[in-house]
């Protein structure tokens, strides 16, 4: 993790324009046109920097496919359905979902698959993984996907959208920024002046945070875009990510390289920088534009409700002892609540057009506290 070309560019920008807000730094780390982490490499799997749920087991994608089928039936089984995935990794989840959907020929024939991916390296991997699939199109943004009834899947998508960080001082909330210290290293600082009336926008829990607390927020534009799409054109979106059920103070800005946490200011562009997702904020924004919200619940609860234990048992029955052990370990990884499991850290939120009053695997928003 030596000095990167992007580090030198960021230092030059700070020297010329002053301290850089955290959101701008995160945006450059991930999406810089030449040196951005997400435009230059395949970060997934054992040889990459992190592993996502679809890479853990085929069961994850299969169950999301069957979940999509249940929503399609609730929608009245439209003759044309857009199955959209945001940030589709290597295409593993979509391949597994489509394999499960082949058992429903009327739905499979109705599908048009749309992959929203900006990383050219991953797009190549997706094309190879999904080479036998008809009616599949790639896009840089969901804005390019044609209108129509849609089911949208977003697994580990919102955590990489840039965050604003605010630091509480005696005189109010200040935007957190990145500056250059006396040794030429990047360091965190805070804007000299507080953001006017910022506390008025905050939930009471955050407003009561002590001096020195950090609060993170993302603009609502992305979630509102999804919510308005399903509200107006029929359908639902499923958001799966790691984060918290309630808006609260806390610094979750982090970097991961080679499956290990590292300093997010050390080698920009060479590590994955993320922050936890505020699911209460997502739900509130979706409801504000008139979509119906389902959940959030923990990933472990969601997967159990949609049948992962039954699916695991069926796979293990036909497997060799070694493969059966792998399936058991994968089930544990996806659903367990301990440090090594994804079951409680990851949350699942559904958003739909208002007529869909219930969606498989998800409770109503009022029950969200039970999932924590």
UniProtKB/TrEMBL annotation:
Cited Gene3D superfamilies: 3.40.50.12710
Domain of life: Bacteria
Keyword Methyltransferase: yes
Keyword Methyltransferase: yes
Keywords (A to Z) from UniProt: Methyltransferase, Transferase
One of the protein's GO biological processes: methylation
UniProt GO molecular function: protein-arginine omega-N symmetric methyltransferase activity
PANTHER family: PROTEIN ARGININE METHYLTRANSFERASE NDUFAF7, MITOCHONDRIAL (PTHR12049)
Name under which the protein is recorded: ATP synthase subunit beta
Organism: Bradyrhizobium centrolobii
């Amino acid at each position: 993790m030596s000095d990167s070309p992007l580090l030198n560019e960021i230092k030059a920008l700070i020297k010329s324009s002053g301290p850089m807000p955290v959101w701008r730094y995160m945006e450059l780390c991930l999406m810089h046109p030449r040196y951005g982490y997400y435009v230059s490499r395949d970060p997934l799997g054992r040889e990459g920097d992190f592993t996502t749920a679809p890479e853990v087991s085929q069961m994850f994608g299969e169950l999301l496919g069957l979940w999509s089928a249940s929503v399609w039936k609730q929608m009245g089984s439209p003759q044309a359905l857009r199955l959209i995935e945001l940030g589709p990794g290597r295409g593993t989840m979509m391949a597994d979902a489509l394999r499960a959907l082949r058992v429903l020929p009327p739905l499979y024939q109705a599908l048009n698959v749309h992959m929203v991916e900006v990383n050219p390296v991953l797009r190549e991997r997706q094309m190879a993984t999904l080479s036998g699939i008809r009616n599949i199109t790639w896009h840089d943004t969901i804005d390019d996907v044609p209108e129509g009834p849609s089911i949208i899947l977003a697994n580990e998508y919102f955590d990489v959208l840039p965050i604003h960080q605010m630091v509480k001082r005696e005189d109010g909330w200040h935007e957190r920024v990145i500056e250059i210290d006396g040794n030429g290293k990047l360091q965190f600082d805070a804007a000299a002046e507080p953001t006017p009336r910022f506390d008025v926008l905050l939930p009471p829990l955050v407003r009561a945070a002590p001096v020195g607390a950090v609060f993170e927020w993302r603009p609502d534009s992305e979630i509102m875009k999804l919510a308005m799409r399903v509200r107006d054109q029929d359908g639902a979106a499923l958001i799966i990510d790691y984060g918290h059920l309630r808006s609260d103070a806390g610094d979750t800005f982090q970097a991961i390289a080679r499956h290990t946490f590292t300093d997010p200011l050390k080698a920009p562009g060479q590590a994955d920088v993320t922050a936890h997702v505020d699911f209460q904020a997502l739900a509130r924004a979706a409801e504000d534009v008139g979509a119906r919200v389902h959940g959030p619940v923990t990933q472990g609860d969601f997967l159990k409700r949609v049948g992962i234990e039954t699916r695991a048992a069926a796979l293990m029955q036909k497997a060799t002892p070694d493969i059966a052990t792998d399936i058991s370990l994968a089930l544990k990884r996806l659903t367990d609540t301990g440090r090594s499991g994804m079951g409680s850290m990851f949350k699942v939120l559904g958003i739909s057009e208002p007529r869909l009053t219930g969606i498989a695997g998800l409770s109503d928003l009022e029950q969200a506290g039970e999932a924590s």
